[in-house]
Design a protein that fits this description.
The structure is a homodimer. By secondary structure, the first copy, chain A, is an all-alpha fold. Chain A contains 9 helices and no strands. Chain A folds into 2 domains: 1-48, Arc Repressor Mutant, subunit A (Orthogonal Bundle), CATH 1.10.10.60; 50-193, Tetracycline Repressor, domain 2, CATH 1.10.357. Chains A and B meet through helix 6, helix 7, helix 8 and helix 9 of A and helix 6, helix 7, helix 8 and helix 9 of B. The first copy, chain A, binds a DNA duplex through residues 1-5, 8, 29-31, 39-43, 45-47, 50-51.
DNA sequence: TGAAGTATACTCAATAGTGAATTTACATGA
DNA sequence: TCATGTAAATTCACTATTGAGTATACTTCA
């Protein structure tokens, strides 16, 4: 089955991501992944050198998917900064409401590996979060707000906080609270940094 | 050494917390803990039935310590809501600046166990976070602000977000951004909910 | 035929938990 | 006051299992 290599690889990445996202790194075994991808462990090792390597590749591929998803989310919007932020938290609420939701796979894995600063997965996760924050800033810039990156960061903080606290409490109320606080910040920001007539 | 039981137990709890906080649950072994507490694994099992049980007891004891610490933090303050919030983020910045800081042990463990909703450690962590948020609300109430719990939650979200993002990026700039956003929220809140002349 | 892909069946180390014996500190009786 | 019984505290050496990674052989397609 020479031709299916890429396909097999994809199937493994997908199965591995599902498991890592839900159960973290340590509690997922290579056997689990093999079973989920419907092949044997030996085949897994044919495609990936090690568990760490697999994790890194999984995050790399998810990174691209997430950036794409964010871009298409942004393309669907074309309103004020307030509209954008509202849509974002709306999305968060829907996302966090899924049955066995267990937070962002990236955040989860970074935290699990928090004491291993040099781990490749951490570097990828870091790049990922930075990229999304940047994309969000660009989206806000398009809406014409001044100092978009500053606003993006503040809103991003609320969103990350909401993810953490929803996980801890299982209470989606935190999403609404974060949304409200974010809107307040947006309005305040608009007053002080004004919507620029000529977006930079 | 009949009398030292309580002492030994304490030593174990302390050593276990240090390890769990830094390395999470799965990557810490009972042997590690025994070694850190300078005793054998069998003694560990004399004091605690299982690793899960130990984790639960560790969090329980840390919960009490953290609440005490927060209370004494609160007692040292007696200013406006703005002062309180500023002090809080100042504390966060100092805390996160410690050499091998790895975030809040509670958040970390909850996230690691995110897919095990019934785990006793999660219930304790949940109670813990709720309690701290409540204490924070009470502190704000003392400063005379209206709807203190609402403000507390918004600020708390920023603080949790900052912890996450500092962990991901190792960049303390997030603490400053969170602090600034929090101050903005406080001022806005004071304008709309006014400092009540007669604190409820 | 040959190389990519897959399977069976293994190795070796690590780890949660245990069995049984040993030591220690205190309470009690003489 | 001092021997001594006793239960708590501790140790050493073990089991059973799990999990990352591998040796080798078989299969399929170009």
């Amino acid at each position: 089955m020479r031709r299916s290599a890429e396909q097999t690889r994809g199937r493994i990445l997908e199965a591995a991501y599902k498991l890592f996202r839900r159960q973290g790194y340590n509690r997922v075994t290579m056997d689990n992944i093999a079973e989920a991808a419907k092949l044997t462990k030996r085949t897994l090792y044919h495609h990936f050198n090690s568990k760490d390597q697999l994790l890194a590749d999984v995050l790399e591929s998810q990174h691209h998917l997430a950036v794409q998803a964010f871009r298409s989310f942004g393309d669907g919007l074309s309103g004020s900064a307030e509209t954008i932020v509202q849509a974002m938290f709306q999305d968060l609420a829907v996302w966090a409401d899924r049955p066995r939701w267990a937070g962002s796979g990236f955040t989860r894995l970074v935290i699990e590996l928090a004491d291993l600063p040099g781990h490749p997965a951490r570097l990828i996760a870091r790049r990922h979060k930075a990229k999304l924050e940047k994309c969000f800033g660009e989206l806000l810039a398009q809406s014409g707000v001044g100092r978009p990156n500053k606003l993006a960061r503040a809103v991003w903080l609320l969103s990350e906080g909401a993810v953490s606290l929803i996980l801890v409490h299982g209470d989606r109320g935190y999403s609404a609270a974060a949304s409200e606080a974010a809107i307040t910040l947006v309005r305040h920001h608009l007053k002080n940094n004004g919507p620029e007539l000529l977006p930079v």
